[in-house]
């Protein structure tokens, strides 16, 4: 009689990596980078350490891939919003709303992205790790530039007032990213509730820079 395949054997390699990343993101979110071990990720996934090491040589490599996935998900959420209908302010609002929603939809991954910034600034890293972190932080800068460009366009037509667009955008994005500390997925009532919360968050932010007639 043919042997029944285990879950890991039945899945293709890409699906296995997705499972590892999801499990690792939750572990890093709950315990932080330094306190999380490969053992923790393996236990959460219900597999052996060897299964994890088949795909990742170290915890750091796994963390970097979770960070990279978190940024990919942010770009995937925001890029369609850059084509929103309306003037520059309407597009900026659509982008911020998409970002806010992505922070909730991918809470664990975006928490890891925030941890990556802290490690980049304060963590002890090897030269190779520093180079990888520099690449990841560069992707954050490109993400921020999307919003700066749109904010400049909105200011150019008098829809927002901001003396320093760079600071204004950092404050906008920082306010949304702070949701990793207070948003609780377990108390979530579903997609409609996340839409309403994202809209309220963005309205509060935009009201601070909207031009008054």
Written description of the protein model:
Keywords: DNA-binding, Membrane, Transcription, Transcription regulation, Transmembrane, Transmembrane helix. InterPro entries: Homeodomain-like_sf, HTH-type_TetR-like_transc_reg, HTH_TetR, KstR2_TetR_C, Tet_transcr_reg_TetR-rel_C_sf. Pfam families: TetR_C_24, TetR_N. The longest helix is centred in the middle third of the chain and has 30 residues, at 127-156. The protein has a domain at 59-207: Orthogonal Bundle (Tetracycline Repressor, domain 2), CATH 1.10.357.10. It has helices spanning 7-10, 13-31, 38-45, 49-53, 59-78, 88-105, 107-122, 127-156, 165-177, 179-182, 191-207. Helices cover 72% and strands 0% of the residues. Mean pLDDT is 89; it is low at 1-9. It is mainly α. The radius of gyration is 20 Å and the shape is elongated. α2 (13-31) packs across α5, α5 (59-78) packs parallel to α8 (127-156) and α6 packs across α11 (191-207).
Question: What secondary-structure arrangement, pairings included, does this model have?
Answer:
Layout: H1 7-10, H2 13-31, H3 38-45, H4 49-53, H5 59-78, H6 88-105, H7 107-122, H8 127-156, H9 165-177, H10 179-182, H11 191-207
Protein name: TetR/AcrR family transcriptional regulator
DNA-binding region: 37-56
Keywords: DNA-binding, Membrane, Transcription, Transcription regulation, Transmembrane, Transmembrane helix
Secondary structure category: mainly alpha
Distance between the termini: 79 Å
CATH architecture of the domain at 59-207: Orthogonal Bundle
CATH superfamily of the domain at 59-207: Tetracycline Repressor, domain 2
Strand count, sense and barrel status of the largest sheet are: none
Contiguous helical run count: 11
**Roughly how much helix do the residues carry, as a percent range?**
over 70%
CATH topology of the domain at 59-207: Tetracycline Repressor, domain 2
| Overall mean pLDDT | 89
Number of strands: 0
The share of residues in extended strands comes to: under 5%
Radius of gyration, whole Å: 20 Å
Low-confidence stretches: 1-9
Order of helices and strands: HHHHHHHHHHH
Shape, please? elongated
Keywords: DNA-binding, Membrane, Transcription, Transcription regulation, Transmembrane, Transmembrane helix
Domain HTH tetR-type: 14-74
DNA-binding region: 37-56
Transmembrane segments: 74-96
């Amino acid at each position: 009689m043919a042997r029944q395949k285990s879950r890991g054997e039945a899945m293709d390699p890409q699906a296995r990596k997705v499972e590892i990343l999801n499990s690792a993101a939750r572990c890093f979110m709950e315990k932080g980078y330094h306190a999380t071990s490969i053992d923790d990720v393996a236990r959460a996934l219900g597999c052996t350490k060897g299964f994890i090491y088949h795909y990742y040589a170290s915890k750091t490599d796994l963390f970097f891939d979770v960070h990279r996935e978190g940024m990919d998900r942010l770009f995937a959420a925001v890029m369609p919003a850059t084509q929103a209908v309306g003037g520059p302010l309407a597009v900026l609002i659509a982008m911020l709303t998409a970002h806010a929603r992505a922070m909730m939809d991918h809470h664990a991954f975006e928490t890891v992205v925030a941890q990556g910034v802290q490690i980049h600034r304060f963590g002890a890293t090897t030269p190779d790790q520093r180079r990888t972190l520099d690449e990841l932080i560069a992707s954050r800068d490109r993400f921020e530039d999307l919003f700066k460009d749109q904010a400049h366009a909105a200011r150019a037509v008098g829809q927002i007032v901001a003396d320093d667009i760079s600071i204004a955008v950092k404050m906008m994005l920082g306010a949304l990213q702070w949701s990793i500390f207070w948003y609780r997925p377990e108390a979530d009532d579903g997609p409609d509730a996340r839409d309403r919360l994202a809209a309220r968050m963005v309205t509060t932010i935009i009201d601070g820079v909207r031009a008054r007639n």
